[in-house]
What we know:
Number of helices of chain B: 0
Largest interface: A-B, 26 and 20 residues
Number of helices of chain A: 0
Distance between the termini of chain A: 40 Å
Structural class of chain B: mainly beta
Shape of chain A: globular
Largest sheet of chain B: 7 strands, mixed
Oligomer: heterodimer
Number of strands of chain B: 11
Distance between the termini of chain B: 37 Å
Helix content of chain A: under 10%
Order of helices and strands of chain A: EEEEEEEEEEE
Largest sheet of chain A: 6 strands, mixed
Order of helices and strands of chain B: EEEEEEEEEEE
Strand content of chain B: over 45%
Helix content of chain B: under 10%
Strand content of chain A: over 45%
Amino acid sequence: QKEVEQNSGPLSVPEGAIASLNCTYSDRGSQSFFWYRQYSGKSPELIMSIYSNGDKEDGRFTAQLNKASQYVSLLIRDSQPSDSATYLCAAYSGSARQLTFGSGTQLTVLP
Amino acid sequence: EAGVAQSPRYKIIEKRQSVAFWCNPISGHATLYWYQQILGQGPKLLIQFQNNGVVDDSQLPKDRFSAERLKGVDSTLKIQPAKLEDSAVYLCASSWGTSGLNEQFFGPGTRLTVL
């Protein structure tokens, strides 16, 4: 059973702080990794993808991947109340040819 | 560019009844996915189509769930008969290809409540 694990939270940070979201995966064959944001009652939307070890930055978001440790993280700098949502980590396995999602971390940014 | 369309948005049925959901993917997207998202969990893949062929249906409860993709475009997901544990949001997604590099775009979902 291929698994993606996330802390369910909730995680609360003050406005302007850095929010750190973590994810581990069990399938060493996973090739690509995604962070989706899901507002309450809405569908997931992709915010970051990462395929290689290291960091990838996009605006206020930085994704980090460490394949040796089977660990993926998402940092949100200068957090805003509008960032309050559930963040889903997902790993793509080439052998299974499917995306496996974690259960999500609920983030609340306090004004 | 129009997004993934789904209908209905909400459905309430009694257990043992049947229900069907419809999805229209983004134009030109060859790959279509149906996910089930139970409250508090991440989406779980039920079935994946490449054009009108099934790529993966290993997690589809085939005794009660069925899906088809007509002419490689629209798709329907059916549950017959429904159980209480089928209460969830059913998400349809599409992508240009099947590679893990292809972003999946999600529709608004259908929220199913089974009483």
